[in-house]
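I have been asked to look over a protein record a colleague put together. This is what I was given:
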Amino acid sequence: MPVLVITGTGTEVGKTVTTAAVAAAALAAGRTVAVLKAAQTGVRPDEPGDADEVARLAGAVTKAELARFPEPLAPATAARRAALRPVRPAEVAEAAAKLAVEHDLVLVEGAGGLLVRFDDEGGTLADAALLLRAPVLVVASAGLGTLNTTELTARELRRRELELAGVVIGSWPDSPDLASRCNLGDLPEVSGAPLLGALPAGAGLLDPADFRAAAPAWLAPRLDGTWGAEAFGVREAP
């Protein structure tokens, strides 16, 4: 799995922190890691972006960013409003392929959900994943409403004949409600893919050293971690 594409079921589901956790676990396993942010929006030129945040939390990763647009909008819209050239899926794929030559793992983080548009021609992260023939990791929320958005994302991946590597819950609450506890079993069913981890709420606020030490325990072995869905589900059962 030299390239792994990471998308969310929407915005604010914990995609960047999950990317950092995957990077940290891979580094702890002795792998070299690069993180590619396809399109960064809503950040000024002098501010740290998502790739910077991944590096801050995870450690010694190679970070890359293809484009940056100032307004917090979909990349195509942000590029158009700023009169800047948009990012194209082929450019994302080319950059990831180049990074894969010198790294054991390349994490390609999208913007928002799978079908958020990069350009006015309708290019998306899904198109980049198809060009790379790379598996896609879906980051989902824990609570009510997540089953619908996760299933829609999984169906679109299957329609495009893309591999869904699994689902990670981007922020698991300290006191999960009934819906969240039930979703532990329902997310694999609706997505047709395994649950590969759950990050505790507030993980991104941890000291980086503590984040790196804890990250493998949040992720399944396929992501270089030690987390087990069955044991986690038993522990969180009502």
Remarks:
- The longest strand covers residues 105-113.
- The first helix runs from residue 15 to 28.
- The chain has nine helices and nine strands.
